[in-house]
């Protein structure tokens, strides 16, 4: 029944800064952010089926099959292209949910890339990005494939070069629901827009995440992690939380911080990636 199999990586992202600059009529927020890919990944095995059945082959704690973005991504591509093929999707989850690392969005993007290839749909990168936006605001970035300065709701992307550094990431042990952070009354939504040309290391120290104040007040565990990691550098939250990160020049410095991490947190290091590990499968 099944044909070719693709082993897929779905990397995490960090938001190096995240500014909320306004709100659209539909409630979605206008933002500016810098997306950085890192080498901490979920992985998927995706097998093409000759019938049109799409199914997830394994249980994923907390995510029913029908709600899973990988299943929704496969169905969306099948509907959009009229493909007669199906897929068996096996998801190996490493990235935490409600962590601000874009795990679910990245899983969906890798599914679209793999099935566009396996089903020979022939969609271009831009067509995949347009489709991906229907699944979530972060999905187009993972299809774009490079580190990016993003505007709009996150779908207007321009490539940026990134530092060749290491990150220490703390998982504070809570799942932060993104809608609750974005809809909080106290959220400031009027940060002055910056230009991509402002985006130099000279202003790096002013980078902030506008969602962090709200997340820290609703989830003291996030605040505790930021406060602790700030001892070592310019620590901040990624996305709508809960994860907190800090950059380091080399791997040894990251290891030194990891040695000191209090036992109640899960923490790890990751290296900055220059590009998405599956980007070669996407045609312009
Ligand atoms: O697009 P995604 O499913 O990742 O967004 C989750 C929720 O986060 C949305 O339902 C919305 O409440 C909020 N959001 C927003 N503005 C954005 C991105 C997300 O208000 N640019």
In short:
The chain has 284 residues and is of the alpha+beta class. 27% of the residues lie in helices and 28% in strands.
Structure description:
By secondary structure, the protein is α+β, with helices and mostly antiparallel strands. The chain has 2 domains: 5-160, Ribosomal Protein S5, domain 2 (2-Layer Sandwich); 166-271, GHMP kinase, C-terminal domain (Alpha-Beta Plaits, 2-Layer Sandwich). It is 27% helix and 28% strand. It has 8 helices and 10 strands. It has helices at 69-81, 103-118, 125-133, 139-144, 178-182, 212-218, 220-229, 251-260, and strands at 2-23, 29-49, 54-56, 86-92, 148-151, 156-159, 166-171, 236-237, 244-248, 266-271. Strands 1, 2, 3, 4, 5 and 6 form a 6-stranded mixed sheet that branches. Strands 8-9-7-10 form a 4-stranded antiparallel sheet, covered by helices on one side. Helix 1 runs parallel beside helix 2 (103-118) and helix 6 packs across helix 7. The longest helix is centred in the middle third of the chain and has 16 residues, at 103-118. The mean pLDDT is 95. The structure holds cytidine-5'-monophosphate. Residues 28-29, 31, 136-138, 153-154, 178-179, 182 line the site of cytidine-5'-monophosphate.
